[in-house]
Automatic annotation (TrEMBL):
This is ABC transporter ATP-binding protein. Its main location: membrane. Belongs to the ABC transporter superfamily. It comes from Paenibacillus contaminans. It is a multi-pass membrane protein. PANTHER family: ATP-BINDING CASSETTE SUB-FAMILY B, ATP-BINDING CASSETTE SUB-FAMILY B MEMBER 6. The keyword Methyltransferase does not apply.
C-alpha cells in the first residue's frame, strides 16, 4: 500500500473514531452473516450426502433439522445487523457532513476567493456520496469476500489439503493480476471526480450568472465549456470501463483455469476412491467462495480505491487551513494605548499570495468618532484596506491597530465584534426581512429591528410588502430591488451598533432620493462612532474629517475636502470629473 493510501486510510479511520465499535460490530456481523449462509449450505450438503451414503434415515433427518435451525437463525439475525450497520454509516456521514460544514465556516476568505463555489459544492455532494458508498457497500463487500473466502479455504483444507494448496497458488496469481489494475483505476476515478467538480462549476456559473448570460448572449460559450467538460468526463468514463473490462476478462480466464483444474483433480480422486462424493460436492461449492475471493477481491478493492478517490477530495477540503483564532503580528512594536487612535495603519504592506504588493507602506488613521473616507482610482487598494480592517487577510508588514492595540492582541472574533460592515455587494440570506436584519444582533427584539429599519429608511417599503417584516427575500434577496437590499443591509449594520462602521460605497445602489434619506439615517447613526467609508461619489463624503486618496497602494493625498481642493491635485480631478457628471472611475479606465 502506498504512503498516500495509508494516510488516506488513516484519515478514513479518523472520521469514525467515535463510532468505530458500532461500525466494526455491524461490518463484521454483516460480513460473517453474508458468508455464513453459503458456507453453511456447502457443509450441510456434505453432511446430507454422507448420511445418504450411510443410508441412515435418522442421520438425514437430524442434518435437515440442524440445517433448518441454522438458516432460521441466520436469516433472522442478518436483517438486524444490516439495519445496525446502515444506521451507523448514516450517523458517521451525518457527523462528517456537520464537520465539513463547520470547517467551511472557519475557512479564510482567501480560500473562497481562490476556489470555485461549484467545486466546493461538488465535494460535499458528489464526493461525499461516493465516500458513503465506500464506507457501506464497498467495505462490506470486501469483508464478506474475505470472510467467506478464508473460511471456505480453511474448511477445504480440513476436507482435503491438496485442493486447498492448489487453490492457494491460483489465488496468489489472481491477486497479483488484480493488484496491477487497482492504481490506474483509482487515478482514473480521481480524474472523474475532479471533472464532476468542474461540471458543478459550470452549472453554478450558469445559475448565478443567468442575467449576464442572457444580456451578452453567452449561452453558446457556456454550453461549449460544459460540453468540453462533459466530453472529458465521457472519455475518462470510457477509459475506466475499458480498464474494468480487461480486468474482468483476465479474471474470467483465471476462473476457468481454476475450475477446470478443480474438476479434473476431483474426478481423478473420486475414481481412485481418495475422496467421498459428499466432500467433493462440498469442496466444489466452497471453491466458488475461494475463487470469488481471488477473482473479485481485486475488483472490489479497485472499486474501493475508486470510491476513495472521492474521499481524497473530501479530505482535501477538510485539510484546507482554517482561519486562525488571531493573526501573529509581523513586527514586535509595543502597545501604546496612551496615544490611541481608534484605527491606525502604520507602514502597512500587503500582497495577495505571491503576487505584487497591492498596499505598500500605507499610513493612515481614524480618531474616535471621525468619518474617514477612502477615495482613489479603481484598483488603487481601497477595498483591500477594508479587507485588512475586517481581518480577512493578515498583514505582510507593518502595524494595524484598533484603540492602540495591535491586531494580534485581539482574536479575530473580538476584532470583528467592534465593526459593522456594509459592502457594495449586499448579501441577503434565505429567510424573512426581519431575520436578515436580525443577523446584526440575533437577540434583538422586534422593536429594535423596526427601529433599525426606520433609521435606514427601510421601514416604509418593508411594511408595504404583503407580509411586512415576514416577507421572504428569496435566494440572495432576488425578490427585492438593489436599493431595498442595501437598506436592509444598512439596517443590519445599524442593529449591530458596533463602535466602528465600515461602509464600502454603502449607498451606491440607491436613487438620489433614497440615497439622501439613508445618508441622513447614517449620519444619525455615525454620531459617536468611527466610520471608514469608501466612496466613488464624492458628494457622500464632503463632510469627512479626513479624506485619504489611495493610489497604487499608497496614500497619494490626505486632508479635508476643502484642503484637498486647494492642492488641486488627484482629488480635484476626481471632483471635476464627477461634476461633469461622469463616474469617478471613468477618469482612470
Ligand atoms: N482576492 C484577490 N486576489 C488577488 N488580487 C486581488 C484580489 N482582490 C483584489 N486584488 C487586486 O488588488 C488590487 C487592489 O484591488 P482593490 O479591490 O483593493 O481596489 P479598489 O481600489 O477597491 O478598486 P475599486 O475602486 O475598483 O473597487 C487590484 O489590482 C486587484 O486586482
Amino acid at each position: 500500500m502506498a504512503t498516500g493510501d495509508k494516510s488516506l486510510m488513516g484519515k478514513m479511520a479518523g472520521i469514525f473514531k467515535h463510532r468505530k465499535f458500532p461500525y466494526m460490530f455491524g461490518l463484521l456481523g454483516c460480513g460473517f452473516l453474508d458468508s455464513g449462509i453459503s458456507v453453511a449450505t456447502a457443509l450441510m450438503i456434505k453432511f446430507i450426502l454422507d448420511a445418504i451414503a450411510e443410508k441412515s434415515m435418522s442421520a438425514i433427518t437430524e442434518v435437515c433439522i440442524q440445517f433448518a435451525a441454522v438458516m432460521i437463525v441466520l436469516s433472522t439475525v442478518k436483517p438486524l445487523f444490516q439495519y445496525w450497520f446502515g444506521r451507523t454509516v448514516k450517523k458517521i456521514m451525518t457527523d462528517l457532513r456537520s464537520q465539513l460544514f463547520l470547517h467551511m465556516t472557519k475557512l479564510p476568505i482567501s480560500y473562497y476567493e481562490n476556489s470555485h463555489s461549484g467545486d466546493s459544492i461538488s465535494r460535499i455532494t458528489n464526493d461525499l456520496g461516493v465516500m458513503e458508498r465506500a464506507l457501506s457497500g464497498n467495505v462490506r463487500s470486501v469483508i464478506s469476500l474475505i470472510v467467506s473466502g478464508v473460511g471456505s479455504a480453511v474448511i477445504m483444507f480440513f476436507l482435503d489439503w491438496r485442493f486447498a494448496i492448489a487453490m492457494l497458488v491460483m489465488g496468489i496469481l489472481s491477486a497479483f493480476v488484480n493488484a496491477r489494475f487497482a492504481k490506474p483505476l483509482r487515478m482514473n476515478s480521481l480524474a472523474i471526480q475532479k471533472n464532476a467538480g468542474i461540471q458543478s462549476e459550470r452549472l453554478s456559473d450558469l445559475i448565478a450568472g443567468t442575467q449576464v448570460n442572457k444580456m451578452y448572449q453567452m449561452s453558446d460559450r457556456i454550453l461549449r465549456k460544459y460540453w468540453e467538460s462533459n466530453g472529458e468526463l465521457t472519455k475518462l468514463s470510457i477509459a475506466r470501463t475499458k480498464k474494468s473490462a480487461y480486468l474482468n476478462s483476465t479474471n474470467y480466464l483465471l476462473l476457468w483455469i481454476n475450475n477446470g483444474g478443480a474438476f479434473t483433480l476431483g474426478t481423478f480422486m473420486l475414481i481412485n476412491g481418495q475422496i467421498t462424493i459428499g466432500n467433493l460436492l462440498s469442496i466444489i461449492l466452497l471453491l466458488e467462495n475461494v475463487t470469488n475471493l481471488f477473482r473479485n477481491l481485486g475488483g472490489f478493492w479497485a472499486n474501493l480505491q475508486s470510491s476513495l478517490a472521492g474521499a481524497d477530495r473530501v479530505f482535501e477540503l477538510l485539510d484546507a487551513a482554517e482561519e486562525p483564532e488571531r493573526y501573529i503580528a509581523p513586527s514586535i512594536e509595543k502597545n501604546d494605548a496612551g496615544a490611541a487612535c481608534m484605527i491606525e495603519f502604520r507602514g502597512c504592506s500587503f500582497a495577495y499570495g505571491n503576487k505584487d504588493r497591492v498596499l505598500d507602506g500605507l499610513n493612515c488613521k481614524a480618531k474616535q468618532g471621525q468619518l474617514v473616507a477612502l477615495v482613489g482610482p479603481s484598483g488603487g487598494g481601497k477595498s483591500t484596506v477594508m479587507k485588512l480592517l475586517l481581518g480577512f487577510y493578515p498583514l505582510e508588514q507593518g502595524e494595524l491597530r484598533i484603540e492602540g492595540k495591535r491586531f494580534s492582541d485581539h482574536t479575530l472574533a473580538e476584532w470583528r465584534e467592534k465593526m459593522a460592515y456594509v459592502s457594495q455587494d449586499t448579501y441577503l440570506f434565505e429567510g424573512t426581512i426581519a431575520d436578515n436584519i436580525r443577523y446584526g444582533r440575533v437577540n434583538a427584539t422586534m422593536e429594535e429591528v423596526v427601529a433599525a429599519a426606520q433609521a435606514a429608511f427601510a421601514h416604509d417599503f418593508i411594511i408595504a410588502q404583503a407580509d411586512g417584516y415576514n416577507t421572504n427575500v428569496g435566494e440572495r434577496g432576488t425578490r427585492l430591488s438593489g436599493g431595498q437590499k442595501q437598506r436592509i443591509a444598512i439596517a443590519r449594520a445599524l442593529l449591530k451598533n458596533a463602535p466602528i462602521l465600515l461602509l464600502d460605497e454603502a449607498t451606491s445602489a440607491l436613487d438620489s432620493e433614497s440615497e439622501q434619506a439613508v445618508q441622513q439615517g447614517l449620519e444619525r447613526l455615525m454620531k459617536g462612532k468611527t466610520t471608514v467609508a469608501i466612496a466613488h461619489r464624492l458628494s457622500t463624503i464632503k463632510q469627512a474629517d479626513v479624506i485619504y486618496v489611495i493610489d497604487k497602494g499608497k496614500i497619494a493625498e490626505q486632508g479635508t475636502h476643502d484642503e484637498l481642493l486647494k492642492t488641486g491635485s488627484v482629488y480635484t480631478r476626481l471632483l471635476q470629473s464627477q461634476e461633469r457628471n461622469c463616474d469617478v472611475k471613468a477618469l482612470y479606465l
